[in-house]
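I am writing to request your help with a piece of structural work I have in hand. I set the record out below, with my sincere thanks for your time.
___
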Amino acid sequence: TPEKLQKMFQDNRWTDFLPVVLPTEALVNEMLKGTSHDPDEVVGKMSPTNTGTYFEFWTYTVKDVAINAVMAGCKPEHLPLLLAVASTGKEAISVSDNSFVGGLVINGNIRDEIGLNYDVGAVGPFAHANTTIGRAWSLISINLGNCGKVGTTYMGVIGNPMNLINIVIAENEKESPWEPFAVRKGYKKGENIVSLFEGWGILSAANWKAAAWGKEMDYPKIIKDIFDQQGFLFGACAVLSPPIAKFVKEAGFNTVEEFEKFLAPATPQFPMGPPPDAKPEAGAQAKPAPKAKVPGMGSNFAILVTGATNNNYYSIGGMRYSQSVQIDKWR
């Protein structure tokens, strides 16, 4: 019965503990209509550490991805985007005890083709495409990458509720005063691209004292002050609503690159302070300490624009960009 099947899926940890759409043969075949690729074609491989060092890589096919897309409630037109994400082998649920979360940023005409939300509630669960695509990425990680098994392949001390549907951001390219994120990474405007991120997550900028409301709001300085508080590991990612982005541009930052240069810290940030001075051995001449190979935050900045224009809000967090993938080759 459907009830017993749902219980079997939960007991075997094939779900995120929400009910799934049972992947019948008919529904999977319908999902496969979303791509011209052969169902048995290998898409990629994944492990909870994304290295294969501690847990073996699991390999999966187009049909495997389609099965999990059905379970998440996706439509066939969502499948090429999911195949593009799956082809990277990047897991949405890391084994780390830091409780990381994954993020997807989508650019291009596909945003409107499949109904991604980039207006009111853009990053929330308020559109079928955003919600099910984010959920499918987690199910793919659980079932095709051996991720998310508590006590073995998942060790998050506190956990992260965003793992359920992850952070799915379709940029509001029409209202943004700057070039889309994918264009800044070298792709053509209108080209369908998904970019992958990983990190702590994002939080309303109102959470930081630096963002206290006043008569005059110096948004570039406020954002810089918040960025300066972010750690070196994942750098900083700002998700700006169009009004905030326009305020920043009006302050003199005509391009994102100019703004990033302003935001960059003057010196690299080190996790445990600057490297110590070298201490010479007895009778030996002092040698300069080797330079630490810890990257500064300036290389880990991301400025994204999405959401509505009905008020001046934005979010900031530690989210690091990793790679971008073309979607259309998976159609």
